[in-house]
Please model this.
Amino acid sequence: MTDTLTITDNRTGKSYEVPVTDGTVRAMDLRQIKVNESDFGLMSYDPAYKNTASCRSAITYIDGDKGILRYRGYPIEQLAEQSTYLEVAYLLLKGELPKRAELDAWQYEITTHTYLHEFFKTSMEGYRYDAHPMGRLVAFLGTLSTFYTDSKEIHDPIIREQNIVRIIAKMPTIAAWAYRHSLGRPYVYPDNDLSYSGNFLSMLFKIAEPSYQPNPVLERALDVLFILHADHEQNCSTAAARSVGSSQADPYVSLAAASAALYGPLHGGANEQVLRMLDRIGSKAAVPDFIKRVKNREAKLMGFGHRVYKNYDPRARVIKKLADQVFEVTGPNPRLDIALELERIALEDEFFVQRKLYPNVDFYSGLIYEAMGFPVEMFPVLFAIPRASGWLAQWSEMLDDKEQKIARPRQIYTGSGHRDYVPSYERG
Ligand code: SDX
Model:
């Protein structure tokens, strides 16, 4: 037995041996399979890349059937329980948990880069109060690219690290200022005495108190949510970051592209859509009728289903537990009963069981965000903030991968054959 595939081309009777490596065959090994010398050779066809590995990565491991998620080998449940978001960001980017001195230095670097150039206040005034904060985040990341022009030196390790720190540090400030602008409230500057999540809460919710003291339960809950959302291997937005970054674009515009992908309701925008769905359902009694509409394909059960997880998303399990702790502080969220009833019915109903549709990371997170006082428009932004460290780790890994080049997929052409131009006056 050998780690090879024998392919017989029945069009020519020829056989080919292609190596099997890490459970894959190289698509380029198919190109030798031709019907004649002028034949371009076989390609693989895989819409939405449902069965295509685009890279080798050592960052995040997911076993969708078993519901396993690990960052650099560490189970997500242990990191959520014992780590902090900044420590996890370090782990994703550097590959190892930091020693105490390394963590202190890392936290100092992030804490001292949270300020935005004052220009951003003027820029923020250019938006309507109700401009979606995700649209602003995409724009501001692109604008940061025009400020830190050295970020184009993507192969300079010191410059790359500087801009990675700047992005992780400034995402919460951009998000908080967009929120404050939507309320017509003055901007709150970063408070370096607070933790990453505590400072974010201060920039969001501080009013007239001399210094904001975050509720420790909510501060910890937000940090755990940031840990859970930090990375998730080759999801849609990470693939966007890698693809745009493969053209050697700078990290700011690569993450602007990733944020744009995350904004979509099928991806990071799902947490916002879950709350809107629960509001449309309105009560526990109305759940059976809504489930009927989902089964008739008149509606999607937002926050359910996943391309990889065909089991319960391990992050949803952690978030569901976290919800109880948050609601102890904020008071119960009336929509929780509707969500629990949706889950109860869906986990028993053949339509969902057969399609292996389980709650994903977005199903319960919005309930916590809403209980903490965030408007639904901020929910995808709360996903983008922590995911920045995952995007940056993946982007950096791509740049250092000798096998990677500029991403340029092929196609199956289905358009017209050759035809000559017809002047407009002859087109009838
Ligand atoms: C995230 O990739 C990642 O890792 C993403 C993410 C991350 O951390 O980066 O985990 C974050 O994006 C989580 C997903 C959030 N999105 C939603 O909750 C939106 C609702 N979910 C679906 O749109 C859907 O489940 C997807 C997009 C998440 C996955 O879609 P797939 O893998 O392309 O599956 P599919 O659309 O081919 O569905 C397979 C079947 C279909 O039934 P049939 O038409 O074949 O009979 O399941 C059905 C779908 O209709 N289905 C659903 C459903 N999800 C799939 N039916 C109702 N409600 C749903 N939510």
Notes: The radius of gyration is 24 Å. Residues 157-183 form the longest helix (27 residues). The longest strand covers residues 4-9.
